[in-house]
Prior knowledge:
Blueprint: E1 6-14, H1 21-30, E2 36-37, E3 48-49, H2 57-61, H3 63-66, H4 71-86, E4 99-104, H5 110-123, H6 140-149, E5 155-156, H7 164-177, E6 183-191, H8 195-204, E7 232-241, H9 242-247, E8 254-263, H10 276-289, E9 298-300, H11 307-320, E10 326-328, H12 331-334, H13 341-355, E11 357-358, E12 374-375, E13 381-382, E14 387-394, E15 398-405
Parallel strand pairs: 4-5, 4-6, 9-10, 9-14, 10-12
Antiparallel strand pairs: 1-7, 1-8, 2-3, 6-7, 8-15, 11-13, 14-15
Helix pairs in contact: 4-6, 7-13, 10-11
Amino acid sequence: MKTPAIAVTGLGMITPVGNDTESTWDGVCAAVSPARTVAALEGCEIDFACMVDGIDLDAAVGRRTAFRMGRYVKFAVLAAREAVADAGLDPAGWDGSRVAVVVGTSSGGSAHLTDQALVLERRGPDATSPAGVLLTIPNMPAAEIAIEMRATGPSMAPCTACSSGVTALSVARDLLATGQCDVAIAGATESTVFPIAMTGFARSGAGARADGDLSRLSRPFAADRAGLVMGEGAAVMVLERADDAEARGAEPRALVAGTGATTDAHHPTSPHPDGRIARAAVEAALRDAGWRAEDVEHINAHGTATQRNDAAEAALISRVYPHRPPVTAPKGVLGHCMGAAGAIEAGLTVLTLQRGVIPPVANLDAPAPEFDIDCVTKQPLVRPVGRAVSHSFGFGGHNAVVALRRP
């Protein structure tokens, strides 16, 4: 049976540079990181991050329900609202049994869990929150979106570390292709800027250390790359079968052409040094799309600004794509939004396809001399793009790739 074309009909984002899709796009194209010192991290080895700012999350979500939602859940709900509205859909009028929700996360409500553990230790059980479980478990973004959107179809919460967002898109695509739903609300969310998480990244050696201008610390693919800067946020897409979207008069933003996934099975944190397993994920996505490598006109790279990850990905890119398509890496601006990163970057790839603009890699004059890749630097590159891929790689050796094309 031929796999039906799957369309992206709606997109919603909340990130460190914008509380919606348009402002996020503008911020990424401006290529200036908002990294700043975070009061809650006082005393930590790493006390800065890229934060979602300028919004009262409780008021935006609604104070009647906000009490039971962790920060990461609020991000997801807001991004989902924007995506569904962008798709021109009204939950009051759809058949909820045909709507799926697939929203991933990496650490879920770990911030609340650690806070409540301290409350329990210092003040006893009566002082802990009665909503403690709801604020902690990682399926709550999907659950809260389903409740608000009256979506009673399949609901899932994939966790493949930093590739959770692309995994969610892949799962949603399969649900649509196999007829298990007609609409899928898919993406990922994350908020990991709290002391124990930041200390963990500092101790692992993956996090950048403050050195002068915080906005210049995240330097993907640079010779002097110094490690990742933490970010937070969410991105959600509405996916539908392209024929269904056309039938209701919706204009797709992009089509999901293919997905691929592999696991390094090598090391808990370090990528396989020769990148061959991640390369297999790219090749699987290209096969699924029916593309040759030379058909790819743009790569949205994982680009964490860490030594090993950037080296492995650069080697992969030069081997798989010898025609050197232009590369961007949004983590130079946004920081590493962890479980949400893949969904955000896939969303930015959709916008590149629509607008014919590739954002630059922030804080990069040129890639490290040993990297044979063509990174966009300084200014956005204005160029029509018909076919693009977004790479997403995570701790545990999880590799996920999505191939997207212009309708």
